[in-house]
C-alpha cells in the first residue's frame, strides 16, 4: 500500500529520472544567421568537383555543388538522387532524381544535367572517375527525373554508390554545353544546387559563399548566412588565428600535431577524427621491385618486422591511428578483413631473415643501402620517413633520405623509378576499385601517379582485381577483396603500415559539426553557430 | 634633349638585354627542376590516370620541347602577354596585378620604416657615441639583427594578437566586414603593422649600425672640422654636412637590398597569409606554375633595375661630384 509520502517519493524519483532524459532529448533552439570561418591551407585553381576529384576542392564546393548520393553515419543517402537500382546483368544503373531542385541561377535541375555531366566531365575529364566510368557508353533520360547509365561491362551497384559522394557531382548543362569545359568561368565561380551560393573568390585570401534562399530542403535551411574559407598556408599562423577567434575550424590536419594537441585540451575546441572517417589514408613504405635486393620477398617481410608501427602511431600520430592490414582500411566496410598475414615488430627476426636472404651485416653493421624518397605530403609523411630510416638502421639497413617537393617526388617515384623505397599516402576513396586496386594492377604506363610504382606483376592479383571490378554480388565481391588483401600482405610490394583518418579542430560554438563521416566535404545545411 | 632624359633612355636600353638574359636563364634553370605543373596538379588532386595527365600536358603546352616552349614564351612576352597561370586558371597579368599592391605596400612600408628609424637611431647613437643611449641602441640593433624575421613574426602574433587581441593575426583586411573608403585603408594599415615591423626590424638594425659607423667616420673628416671652424654647428652641421655624406653607403645598401627584401617578403607573406607576390612566388615554385614564376621574375627584375637607376640618381643629388653620364 502506498502512503502519500511514498507516492510523493515515487513521483519525485520518476521526475528525477525523467529530467535528464528530457534534457537530453530536447534539442537546443537553433540560432539562425552568422558566418563560419573555415581554414584552408592552399589555393584551389578549380572549384568544380566534376573536374577535380580532390578533398581540397570538396571542402569548398561541397557547400555549393551537391552529389547524387552522400555518405552519412546511417549509410548512403540520396541528395540529388532519391533512389537507385541496377539491372540484372549490371549493365544499366538507374537513378531517380529529386524533384523541385533548382540551380543557383533559377533553372531547374534534371536528368539532362546528369547525362551531360557524366558523358562530358565524369567520363573524359575527372581524375579517378575516368577509370571508374571507362565502360560507360551512354546516359539515357526516359523522363526528366530518371537517369539510366548504360555500361558495356557490368558495373557493381555498390561500387557506383560508394563512388558517388566524391565522383557524382552534376554541373548545369545550360552553362557548360557548347563551351570549352576546362576554361568555363563557372569552374571558378560554381553554380550548384547546394545550400550556399558562391559569392567571391579573392585569390590568396578567401572564398565566400552566401545562403541560398531557394534551397530544396526548405526555407529553414541552411541556418548560416555565410561560409568564409580563409587561406592561411602557415600552420602556426592558422593555430594563432583559431586561438584568437578568427577561425572556427581547421580540418584535415591543417595545424601541426603539437598545436592540435595543445588546442585540443582547450575547452573552447573539439579536436579529433570524428567526421573524417571517410577520409582515411595509409602511411606506406613502397618498394621498387626493380632493385634485386628488394625483389626478394624475404627482405620486404624483414623490413616490415623491423618497423614498430605502435611506436610511430604513439609518437607521430599521437595515437590517432591504427596499424594497417593491407591495402583496404577498416573504413572499407565489408570489403575489409583483418584476417591477413601480419608482421609484428621483431628486429631480431628481421635480422635473421636478412641473414637468411643472403645479406649479412658488414664490419660496420651495414647489410645494404637504400635510397628513400619521402613524399612531401606533410607532417606525418616527413616524420614517418625519418622514423623508417632510424628503424632500418636498427636492422642493419642504411637509408639515405632524398627529400623533394611534389613534382620531384612524383617524377622520381612514378616516372623515373629513381628510388629504392619511398613513402607517401594511399588515400582510400570509399571503394577499392576507385582508389586502391590501381596501385596493384600491372599494365599502367610509367609516369601515371598512384599506379603500381613498385613494378609489381602478379597474374593472380590482376585476375582478382578484374573479377572484383565486375562482380555484382556484394558478398562475392567482398570475398575477392579479402583475397586481394591477403595476397598483397603476402607479396608485400608495399607496406600499408599505418591507417589514419585526418584530424580536425573545431570551435564548440559550432552545433551539428562533424555529424557525417565526410563532414568537411558535405553541405553543412544543418550547421549553426551558438553565439 | 635634357641630359637626364638621355641618361634615362640609355639606362633603359642597357636594361633590355639584361632582362632578356635573366628571362632566358631563369626559364632554362626552372626546367632543371624535376616535374612540371601537371605533376603538381596531380599531387594536389591525390591521383589521376594516364589519359588525364596527357591531356593536361597538351592543354598547358608542356608536351612541347623546352626550346619551343621558350620561343613561344618570349614571343608572347614581347607583346607583354605573360601567359596563363596553371594554378590560378587566370591570365598571369591578372594574378600579378592582384598581388603586386600588397607586396609594394609591405616592401615600401618596411624599407621606409627601416630607413627612417635606422638612420635616425644610427645618427643619435653616433652623436652620443659610447654613452648609455648608444649602448642601448646598439644592443637593440644587435638583437633585431640576430633574430630571424619568422621568429619575430610568430612572437608578435602570440603577443599582439593571441594574448592582447590588439591586431589581426593574418590577411590584408577583415574578411566579411566589407569596409570601403578610409575605413578600408585603416583596416589594411592595421593588418600591415606586424608584417611591416617583422620585415623591417632586421633592415633597421643594418641601417642603424651602418649609419652610426658612417657618421662617426664623416665627423672625423677635414671638411667637417673646417665647417666647425667656420662656425657651422648643431643641426646645420649634422644635416647639411655630416648626414648628407654619411648617407651614401646607406643608400647603396638600400638599393642593393631591394631583391633581398623581396625574398624576405616570401616568409612574411606566408606567415601572415598576405596575398602578395612573395607568397605567390613560393606557391608558383612548389606548383611549377612556370608562367606565373616567369612573370614574377620579370617584375622583380624591372623593380631591381628601376631602383638601381633611382639609387644612382640619388647619389648625384646627394653628392654634386657625381655626374650622371
Question: What brief labels describe this structure?
Answer:
heterodimer, A: 531 residues, alpha+beta, D-Maltodextrin-Binding Protein, domain 2, Dipeptide-binding Protein, domain 1, Dipeptide-binding Protein, domain 3, 3 domains, seven-stranded mixed beta sheet, 22 strands, B: 325 residues, mainly alpha, MetI-like fold, two-stranded antiparallel sheet, MetI-like (chain B)
How many strands, which pairing sense, and closed or not: the largest β-sheet of chain B?
2 strands, antiparallel
Give the SSE string of chain B: HHHHEEHHHHHHHHH
Structural class of chain A: alpha+beta
How many domains comprise the coordinates of chain A? Answer: 3
Strand order of the largest sheet of chain B: 1-2
Number of strands of chain B: 2
Number of helices of chain A: 17
Main location (chain B): membrane
Keywords (chain B): Cell membrane, Membrane, Transmembrane, Transmembrane helix, Transport
Protein name (chain B): Peptide/nickel transport system permease protein
Domain ABC transmembrane type-1 (chain B): 100-315
Fold and architecture overview:
The complex is a heterodimer of chains A (531) and B (325). By secondary structure, chain A is of the alpha+beta class. Chain A has helices at residues 4-25, 55-61, 111-122, 129-132, 157-167, 173-176, 235-243, 257-264, 297-305, 309-315, 347-356, 379-394, 406-415, 432-435, 437-440, 459-470, 474-491; strands at 35-40, 69-72, 75-78, 81-86, 92-97, 136-143, 146-151, 196-202, 206-211, 226-231, 249-250, 269-272, 280-287, 322-323, 368-374, 397-401, 421-423, 425-427, 494-501, 504-507, 510-511, 528-529. Chain A has 17 helices and 22 strands. In chain A, the strands form six sheets. In chain A, strands 13, 14, 15, 16, 17, 18 and 19 form a seven-stranded mixed beta sheet that branches. Chain A has a four-stranded mixed beta sheet with strand order 1-10-9-8, covered by helices on one side. In chain A, a hairpin with a 2-residue loop joins β2 and β3 (75-78). Chain B has a domain at 93-318: Orthogonal Bundle (MetI-like fold), CATH 1.10.3720.10. Chain B is 78% helix and 1% strand. Chain B contains 13 helices and two strands. Chain B has a two-stranded antiparallel sheet. In chain B, a hairpin with a 4-residue loop joins β1 (84-85) and β2. The chains are: A alpha+beta (531), B mainly alpha (325). Chains A and B meet through β10, α7 and α13 of A and α2, α3, α5, α7 and α12 of B. Chain A: It comes from Amaricoccus macauensis. Chain A: Keywords: Signal.
Amino acid at each position: 500500500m502506498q502512503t502519500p509520502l511514498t507516492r510523493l517519493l515515487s513521483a519525485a524519483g520518476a521526475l528525477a529520472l525523467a529530467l535528464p532524459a528530457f534534457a537530453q532529448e530536447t534539442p537546443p533552439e537553433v540560432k539562425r544567421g552568422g558566418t563560419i570561418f573555415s581554414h584552408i591551407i592552399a589555393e584551389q585553381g578549380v572549384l568544380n568537383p566534376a573536374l577535380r576529384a580532390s578533398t581540397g576542392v570538396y571542402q569548398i564546393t561541397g557547400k555549393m555543388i551537391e552529389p547524387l548520393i552522400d555518405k552519412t553515419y546511417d549509410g548512403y543517402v540520396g541528395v540529388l538522387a532519391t533512389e537507385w537500382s541496377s539491372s540484372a546483368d549490371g549493365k544499366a544503373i538507374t537513378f531517380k532524381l529529386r524533384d523541385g531542385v533548382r540551380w543557383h541561377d533559377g533553372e531547374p535541375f534534371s536528368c539532362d544535367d546528369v547525362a551531360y555531366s557524366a558523358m562530358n566531365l565524369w567520363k573524359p575529364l575527372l581524375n579517378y572517375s575516368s577509370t571508374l566510368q571507362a565502360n560507360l557508353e551512354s546516359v539515357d533520360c526516359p523522363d526528366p527525373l530518371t537517369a539510366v547509365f548504360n555500361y558495356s561491362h557490368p558495373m557493381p551497384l555498390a561500387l557506383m554508390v560508394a563512388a558517388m559522394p566524391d565522383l557524382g557531382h552534376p554541373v548545369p548543362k545550360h552553362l557548360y554545353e557548347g563551351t570549352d569545359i576546362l576554361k568555363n568561368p563557372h569552374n571558378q565561380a560554381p553554380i550548384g544546387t547546394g545550400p550556399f551560393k558562391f559569392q567571391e573568390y579573392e585569390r590568396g585570401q578567401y572564398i565566400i559563399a552566401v545562403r541560398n534562399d531557394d534551397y530544396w530542403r526548405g526555407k529553414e535551411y541552411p541556418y548560416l548566412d555565410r561560409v568564409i574559407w580563409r587561406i592561411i598556408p602557415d600552420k602556426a599562423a592558422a593555430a594563432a588565428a583559431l586561438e584568437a577567434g578568427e577561425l572556427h575550424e581547421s580540418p584535415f590536419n591543417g595545424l601541426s600535431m603539437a598545436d592540435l594537441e595543445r588546442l585540443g585540451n582547450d575547452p573552447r575546441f573539439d579536436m579529433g577524427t570524428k567526421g573524417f572517417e571517410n577520409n582515411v589514408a595509409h602511411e606506406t613504405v613502397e618498394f621498387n621491385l626493380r632493385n634485386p635486393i628488394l625483389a626478394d620477398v624475404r627482405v620486404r617481410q624483414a623490413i616490415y618486422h623491423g618497423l614498430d608501427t605502435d611506436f610511430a602511431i604513439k609518437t607521430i600520430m599521437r595515437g590517432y591511428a591504427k596499424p594497417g592490414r593491407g591495402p583496404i582500411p577498416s573504413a572499407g566496410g565489408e570489403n575489409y578483413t583483418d584476417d591477413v598475414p601480419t608482421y609484428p615488430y621483431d628486429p631480431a627476426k628481421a635480422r635473421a631473415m636478412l641473414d637468411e636472404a643472403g645479406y649479412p651485416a658488414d664490419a660496420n653493421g651495414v647489410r645494404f643501402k637504400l635510397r628513400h624518397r619521402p613524399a612531401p605530403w606533410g607532417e606525418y609523411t616527413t616524420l614517418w620517413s625519418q622514423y623508417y630510416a632510424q628503424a632500418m638502421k636498427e636492422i642493419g639497413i642504411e637509408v639515405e633520405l632524398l627529400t623533394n617537393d611534389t613534382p620531384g617526388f612524383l617524377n622520381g617515384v612514378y616516372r623515373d623509378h629513381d628510388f629504392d623505397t619511398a613513402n607517401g599516402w594511399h588515400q582510400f576513396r570509399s571503394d577499392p576499385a576507385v582508389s586502391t586496386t590501381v596501385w596493384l594492377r600491372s599494365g599502367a604506363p610509367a609516369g601515371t601517379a598512384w599506379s603500381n610504382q613498385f613494378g609489381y606483376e602478379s597474374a593472380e592479383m590482376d585476375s582478382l582485381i578484374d573479377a572484383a571490378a565486375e562482380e555484382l554480388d556484394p558478398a562475392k565481391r567482398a570475398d575477392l577483396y579479402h583475397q586481394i588483401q591477403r595476397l598483397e600482405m603476402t607479396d608485400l610490394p608495399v607496406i600499408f603500415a599505418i591507417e589514419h583518418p585526418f584530424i580536425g579542430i573545431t570551435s564548440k560554438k559550432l552545433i551539428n559539426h562533424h555529424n557525417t563521416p565526410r563532414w568537411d566535404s558535405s553541405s553543412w545545411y544543418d550547421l549553426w553557430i551558438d553565439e | 634633349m635634357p641630359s637626364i632624359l638621355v641618361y634615362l633612355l640609355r639606362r633603359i636600353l642597357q636594361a633590355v638585354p639584361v632582362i632578356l638574359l635573366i628571362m632566358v636563364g631563369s626559364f632554362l634553370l626552372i626546367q632543371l627542376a624535376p616535374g612540371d605543373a601537371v605533376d603538381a596538379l596531380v599531387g594536389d588532386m591525390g591521383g589521376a590516370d594516364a589519359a588525364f595527365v596527357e591531356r593536361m600536358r597538351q592543354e598547358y603546352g608542356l608536351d612541347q620541347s623546352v626550346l619551343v616552349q621558350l620561343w613561344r614564351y618570349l614571343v608572347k612576352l614581347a607583346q607583354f602577354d605573360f601567359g596563363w597561370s596553371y594554378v590560378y586558371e587566370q591570365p598571369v597579368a591578372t594574378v600579378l596585378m592582384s598581388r603586386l599592391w600588397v607586396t609594394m605596400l609591405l616592401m615600401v612600408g618596411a624599407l621606409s620604416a627601416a630607413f627612417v628609424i635606422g638612420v635616425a637611431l644610427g645618427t643619435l647613437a653616433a652623436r652620443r657615441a659610447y654613452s648609455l643611449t648608444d649602448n642601448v641602441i646598439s644592443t637593440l640593433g644587435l638583437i633585431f639583427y640576430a633574430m630571424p624575421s619568422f621568429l619575430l613574426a610568430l612572437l608578435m602574433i602570440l603577443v599582439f594578437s593571441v594574448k592582447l587581441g590588439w591586431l589581426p593575426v593574418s590577411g590584408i583586411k577583415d574578411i566579411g566586414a566589407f569596409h570601403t573608403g578610409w575605413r578600408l585603408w585603416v583596416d589594411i594599415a592595421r593588418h600591415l603593422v606586424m608584417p611591416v615591423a617583422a620585415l623591417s626590424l632586421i633592415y633597421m638594425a643594418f641601417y642603424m649600425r651602418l649609419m652610426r659607423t658612417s657618421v662617426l667616420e664623416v665627423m672625423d673628416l677635414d671638411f667637417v672640422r673646417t665647417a666647425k671652424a667656420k662656425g657651422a654647428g648643431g643641426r646645420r652641421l649634422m644635416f647639411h654636412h655630416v648626414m648628407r655624406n654619411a648617407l651614401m653607403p646607406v643608400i647603396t645598401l638600400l638599393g642593393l637590398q631591394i631583391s633581398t627584401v623581396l625574398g624576405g617578403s616570401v616568409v612574411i607573406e606566408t606567415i601572415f597569409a598576405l596575398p602578395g607576390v612573395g607568397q605567390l612566388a613560393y606557391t608558383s615554385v612548389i606548383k611549377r606554375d612556370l608562367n606565373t614564376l616567369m612573370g614574377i621574375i620579370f617584375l622583380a627584375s624591372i623593380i631591381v633595375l628601376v631602383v638601381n637607376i633611382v639609387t644612382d640618381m640619388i647619389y648625384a643629388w646627394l653628392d654634386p661630384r657625381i655626374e650622371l653620364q
